[in-house]
Amino acid sequence: MEFFKKQYQILSLVAFILLGCSSDEEQSTTLEIKVTNFETSYSQVKLNWELVRPNGIIIEDLLIYRQSKNNATDNVTLELVANLPSNETSFIDNDVPYKTEVSYTIKINYTDERLTPTNPTNPTGLLSLESEQKKFIRNIVTFDIVPFQVQKDPILVDEFHILDRQGNGALKRYNGTLNQLTKTILFTNGNLLNNKFHIVNNTDLYVADTQGKIYKINTENYTTTAIYNTIINDNLNAFAVDGDRIYYQDEEIWWYYNTTNGTSENTHIATTANYVETLSDHNFLFLYGSGAAIRSYNPTNCNASNCMPDFGAGTQGAILGNNAMDPNIFSWNTSKSKFITSIDGRIFNLSNFQQEIKLSDITGKKYFQFVFDNNNNIYATVQNEKKIHKFNSSYELIEVIDTKLYPLFPMLTSNGLKVIGGYEPVTYWSFGYGYSFYFNIKCAIETF
């Protein structure tokens, strides 16, 4: 009996060894690929993988494919981004699309010398194997068209107000710390929102449309506290708020609306301003295509029977060329002693309206928008290039910042620079070529 027991044990051991060898041999007959590392960042994506390649497997192609999209309705295409040697086990993508979802797949085309081709549709016997798909998911705020206006809140930290003219139009509040839109107010027709909004007393935001409807919105809770319907004969194309009066330009006639009793008064004064902004009580900045001025209006010098404004001394400035001033491109420095305007980056001193410099003379570039920081450095988005120029307070170009999108609206936050950029280039010549400032280009807020 002991003899048979030992024989059984020996046979069992032999069977175990044979089965083990058979299992190992079976595993080694199949080509396998496994992604072992997937690292993502703003600037790059890194892939590592392992290959199990049995004898007789000939790798013809080792390919990396990429897909990118912002939403489910995007037209997603499969893009070949690398054709690598067959023994490669890593890939770094240094040109990652700035989309909410970017996916990567490794594909291997190979032949198996151990097989005889039997499929008439594949006489070469070429086979293929794909890895699991790896996804890079990002929190990106997107817009279907280029916003009309972007302005930082004067009090709320890292909050920006964005006027979006898509569809019915909307005012959106963006939180730079959270990197998300936190509030939204909808309007009725985005095509009518051709006037830049104004923030008054740091808490009241006024949005006007060309038909004379003006919304008063609380900047903190985004409630509409009042709606004013001014009398319009043609189009409201510039306005400013001063106390209980809203001054506005109807075509080329200056009017004012009394918010207390809801009446509109025609002053019979002609003006061709492209942009008007309240500087202080009763003092207004008027911007024209080729110049600027400061005018003072108050109930005494401007009423239903008489309207003759006072002009600020020495504020007429020099008469410049056409389109030297542009209401669609306008930004103050922190102290409001200087402003910058036009695609050329013309900087003016408010005390005399003399042009200090034209940034395009330094770089030869045209710009889309500008913003000053607290040190009077200027961030300028270059048209049709993925670059932002940074100038110091002496107007020297001190840095060129590369972007993934075509930068449009620079936004300075406590966490650094962010920018609304387009997925395609945007060309803008000047206000003189039209009032619409409408660009049907998809955009996103790029964070670095």
TrEMBL record:
InterPro entries associated with the record: Ig-like_fold, Quinoprotein_ADH-like_sf
Gene3D superfamilies the UniProt entry points to: Immunoglobulins (2.60.40.10)
Superkingdom, natural source: Bacteria
Name this polypeptide is given: DUF5050 domain-containing protein
Provenance organism: Flavobacterium helocola
